[in-house]
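pasting input
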Amino acid sequence: MTRQKEDLLKGTLDLLILKTLDLEPMHGWGIGERIKVFSGNTLTVPTGSLYPALQRLLRKGLIAAEWRTTDTNRRARYYKLTRAGRKQLREEQQSWARASLAVNQVLEASL
Amino acid sequence: MALLRGLIHRLSKLFSSSRVRRELDEEIRFHLEHEIQKNMLSGMDEAEAVRQAKIDFGGVENIREQVSEESGVRWLEDFVQDVRYGLRGLRKAPVFTAAALISLGVGIGANTAAFSVVNGVLLNPLPYPEQERLHSLRVEWPTFSGPLADADFLGLEQQIEDFSAIVGYGTYGLTLMTPEGPRVIQGAWVTDGMNDVFGIHPAVGRGFKADDELVALVSHEFWQSYLAGTEQVLGTTLELDEQRYTVIGVMPPGFGLPGQNDGNVWVLRPITEPTRRGPFYIRAIARLAHGPETEVATAQLRSLEASLNSRYPSSTEWTYSLTPLKEVVVGEVATTLLMLFAVVGCVLLIAVANVINLLLARGTSRLHEVAMRSALGASRGRLVRQLLTESAVLGVLGAGVGLGLAWLVTDLLVTRGSELVPRIEEVGIDTTVTLFALSIGIIAGVLAGTIPAINLRPARLGQTLKEGGRAGTAARSRGRTRNVLVVAEFALALAVLVSSALLVRSLLRMQTADLGVHTDGVVSFRLQMPSDPYSESEAARTFFAELKQRLTGLPGVASVAFSSSLPPDRITMTNNYTVMGNEPVAGQGQPTAEWILVSEGYFETMGIPLLRGRNFTGNDSDDQPRVYVVNQAFVRQHYPDRDPLTGRIQPGNWNPEGGWSDIVGVVGDVVYSGMADGAQPTVYAAHSQNLGWNNPFAVVRTSRTNVLSVARVQDVLQAVDPRMPLRQYASLEQLVANATAADRFRSFLFAILAAIALIMAATGIYGVMSYHVGTRQRETAIRRALGARSTRLVGDILREGLLLATAGSLLGVIGAVALAHTFSSLLFDISPTDVATYVAAVVLLVGVAQVACLVPSVRATRVDPVAALRDE
């Protein structure tokens, strides 16, 4: 039961991370913040999901990581999209669009 | 690509897992700092900001765990952890570890050593380029198979287009004249195709050419040791067998003709057009022009056969056979090696059974630990994986021990077995062998770990905790498993034991077999006579007479004689012949017999009884009619119901116009072609009527107290002719011992393996019985408290052991029969199903089992009822 819900979240979370990184390379905390801001404070990404998700994307080769200094002269681990990640993002965006359109059509259906 | 990247990522993670952890920690720290900063910006005080950030973040350890799981190195980390855990476990149980490692080490060591020999001798190609194209050529006719005659060789050389090259050769000892006197060196005569056939050319100088005369190639070793190892050697001459040969080249190190370990010189000998087809003395090897397939060459051979057979009408039905050279070189040793492999395989299985037993015993004591881990959440799969990893670790360590043992054994084999196994010098521990050892180590380890792992059932584990670790139902099933194991061990041990016993008994029979001669006090040596002047029969006659006279004059010498062959395996000639009254019809093969030229007095000197007629005498000279003496086997074959002394024979190819010679005597059977073949039909001809044969053996009978010394004989020989070397000086007893050396070596090897199998099986049953006694303490205690006698208790244990050992042994009989039939060709005068051997092996195994059970059974009687029951 819980496992299913998690899977759904994981898939969506991955998509959100990829989209965030498509804008510019970012560190883990920044990614969480961005998602929160862009969703109008609706979506909060728990750290317990964020870091494993980053690790998963790294393993799949969709993102890459490097240590850089921030504007405040602090060392942080920045993630950025790889070519494969960009491709994956495009595909998932399209399928998400199709899926959400379909869901909306169902929800707005009337007799 | 993505897969590869994923793998690289995982591996780099694994090998830098501490760095990964540091990085993650820094990342987490960074995250928290930003969170705190944000909280403070939104108006919290510092303490509250930190608290809130930590709450939002969640459990750090949890995140670490999940990240490591996502990174995909979890199973690798688990594996490393299991290996570490396993090693620690092994260190903590030194007795168990030592027992298991000895068992596995010996089992794997025996297999590795056997494999290294099989690999070096059977699997590896011969040391010639494109060796699969090399084939040996022989002549076959209905009753015989032999090397080639001149006519055959020339025909093959000139007419078979599918041979890119062909060489004829014969190995022999050459007399090298040195400033210190004559010396015999091992070598061969060859035809000019040698370098092309083997594809190996001289390291210094050049190879043979067709128009060369009196030239020689020398071995690298001979060049270094005798010819000073410089290039000036080219063009110098060696005096070999009274002729001066020019050295034209030095072969690279390690070169030898097939099966020739000690060749030092190869001299060129041209083959000339003969007048008749025979004698057959040329060993020939051809290189096929178009790869290893023989179809084309075979077709060409068939047409050559037809043309040769029509040119020499006496030889119809003769064909040529083409055999891959490797088959010829390896020959019958293949049977021994495959049998060896089967037997060491049995030993390894016994070792594995022993380790399973040990693991089961250890599993009992670890049951509590395993049950606890299971209760704490370890899945069954995880526990099984850990057990298997542990036993695989054991297997790998066992392979290490085994490799060490195998190294010692192969070293011994190579130094001791060089005369007995072809190509043994190519045997060693190389990468293939090491990989083999590691593979069987891991397989054996995992195999041994499987049964204890199957025994691991979660339901039982819960039971175990409830019972407080006391032996319950699980123990009973384990007891059954162990009984099955012991039965299997005994079955395997019996197969090994029977095989070895058959070989040993066969050897004993061979050694005590009646050779038909009195060997004690007889010494022999071989003469190598220069053709000038001894090709003249008068000179040869004078020489033999003088040598005989001088040898007879030595103290302790009773008689002296000469012979072209010696028992038990120095046969130098077989001949075809026709028996009067039984002439061959067209197309029918002739009989062949061992053909031996002996001097007057040979039968007395060797102690061969004269049964009928007369011996050769001084009157049987060149100008007298030829006469023959035959043995009993000959009489049995040709004169079963006629008087052999009225018989006449004609030697050689059947010629209706040819003359006949009388059989004048019958002597007892003597073994000349090896103990395994026994006495064959033999014809003795008078040496004095065949003086063209000039390299006979001399045999000297001495009184037992006065053994003739080599130096004395040497002196006599030098006095008669200073150019003559003393060769192959040995007592007849030594010749007999040499003839059985290979069999003794083989029996020795198998006897050792049988001893190992026996000890392992005994250890196995000891372990199981000890375990039984251990688990039955309570039962025993109660029985003793109720007044059971000690003898009764001992008897029960012994009976149980007896049952297991007998069941195993009887099962093993089936395996032993199957195994023994595969090597029946190695057995001399004993059936592979020899009942006495089987019965003795079963009795021995059961006896050993009883002794092994004695200790645990006595221990059962020492159980103190009160103490045992209180313990519960």
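fyi Chain B has a mean pLDDT of 84.
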